[in-house]
Design brief:
Layout (H helix, E strand, L loop, with lengths): L12 E11 L5 H5 L2 E11 L16 H13 L6 H12 L5 E10 L9 E8 L3
Antiparallel strand pairs: 1-2, 2-3, 3-4
Length: about 130
């Protein structure tokens, strides 16, 4: 008897895409003196145990909390590197035990006139 194809497990991901915040970020003196526009995108993939919640709003990964965390981190004081900003976002998002994987993009928008953005991408799996 032939078994059917093995299907990949269902994945549930919540996104915050293109959130622009003002932030004191960068290692140059001029960047320390004035806030600049930073675009943040976050993808949160649920653990295998946190099944797709369907219409049960009590079981969703709450993107409003993600937005609030990004805004709070941006307002909390100077950050030297985009990588550090991304790491702090990851730490905040892993407070939700349903989050198994995170991808964070942090981009400074006004560094080079001929580039849309510069920044860093950080991906992390939930620590064991």
């Amino acid at each position: 008897m032939s078994e059917g194809p093995i299907l990949p497990p269902e994945r549930y991901t919540v996104v915050v895409r293109g959130l622009v915040v003002m932030c004191s970020i960068g290692i140059r003196r001029g960047e320390r003196d004035r806030p600049q526009r930073v675009r943040v995108s976050v993808e949160l993939t649920a653990t295998a145990q946190a099944a797709f919640p369907g219409e049960d709003r009590r079981r969703v990964i709450n993107y409003e909390k993600v937005v609030a965390a990004v805004r709070q981190i941006a307002a909390s004081g100077h950050i030297d590197l985009c990588e550090g900003f991304a790491a702090r976002i990851c730490d905040a998002c892993f407070a939700d035990p349903r989050v198994g994987h995170i991808r964070v993009e942090v981009e400074k928008l006004d560094i080079f006139a001929d580039a849309e953005a510069v920044g860093a991408i950080l991906e992390r799996d939930r620590p064991d």
